[in-house]
Amino acid sequence: MSLDDLFGPQEPSEPEPAREPKKPREPRPPREPKPPREPRAAREPREPGEPRSRSTLILSIIAGILAVAVAVVVGIALTRPSDTAGTTQPNPVPPPPATSSTPSATPSVPATTSTLELSATGFTLQNEDGAEFTHSWADAAEPAIAALTAAIGAEPTTDVESGDSRTYAYTVYSWDGFRFADVLLSEGNKPRDQVDTPTYAAFSSNEVGDVKIVAEFGLNIGMSLADARALGPDGESTTAPPILFFGTDRDTFFVDGARTYGVRVVTDGTEVTDVIYRFTPPGG
């Protein structure tokens, strides 16, 4: 279907007249240059109490918030318990001292300078220079006391040991760990040369001062009762704690008049506490 069918025959339209060309624009005159701006005058300082600008106020608020946040973080870090809390840290081990190529001098250790050796007939005191002093049980006591005092380096204490119906009384000279006894005779007693035990000795320490004490049979203070029994004593008391007897065959005064002593070993039931060189009568 065409336009003529719809609207009927159409008249031809007249052509539009041609447009006149636009006149060219006249050029604009050049602009005059702007005069230079005068520099701004410096702002006068704000008087105290003068309100700040809004931007300055906002920046101040932000800075304050940041300062508070930093303070909170630092406070938490300082008060937070360390990971090692409750765990004992070992003390640092100091480095070993530097060793010197030159060996240090060995400190001198005090050694015994004398030896006191006990036997059936008496004792011998030998100094480190080789000088000897010998005391027999029947000898006078004074020279022995002087020699012991010089060797031990101390004066003895003095006591009296009471006698009974079977034994004499004695004056006992005691050093720390060693005793020397001299018979104390009174009117009515036998003369000294008829006494079975004019002097005797005992020790409760293996060393007294600078003097080393040496007994027979391998006996020494502190050895166990079992070890003392293993040395083969001649007998043992029935009392408790037991006393061991060595060299009982030497107590022959009433046979031949010899002052030769056996040895009594006193114990506390566990170990040897005292060794005594003294005449023991038969059955004693």
Name the structural class: alpha+beta
- H/E order of the elements? HHEEEHEEEEEEHEEHEE
How large, in whole angstroms, is the Cα Rg? 62 Å
State the shape.
rod-shaped
Helical element count? 5
Residue fraction in strands: 15-25%
Mean pLDDT: 80
Distance between the termini: 172 Å
Strand order of the largest sheet: 4-5-6-7-13-12-11-10
In brief:
19% of the residues lie in helices and 23% in strands. It has 284 residues and is an alpha+beta fold.
Please characterize this protein's 3D structure.
It contains 5 helices and 13 strands. The protein is α+β, with helices and mostly antiparallel strands. The chain has a domain of 165 residues. β5 and β6 form a beta hairpin.
Feature tags:
284 residues, rod-shaped, transmembrane, five-stranded mixed sheet, eight-stranded antiparallel sheet, transmembrane helix, alpha+beta, membrane
Summarize the helices and strands and which ones pair or pack.
Layout: H1 3-7, H2 54-79, E1 114-118, E2 122-127, E3 132-136, H3 141-152, E4 157-161, E5 169-175, E6 178-184, E7 199-203, E8 207-208, E9 211-214, H4 225-230, E10 235-236, E11 243-246, H5 253-256, E12 262-267, E13 272-278
Parallel strand pairs: 1-9
Antiparallel strand pairs: 1-2, 2-3, 4-5, 5-6, 6-7, 7-13, 8-9, 10-11, 11-12, 12-13
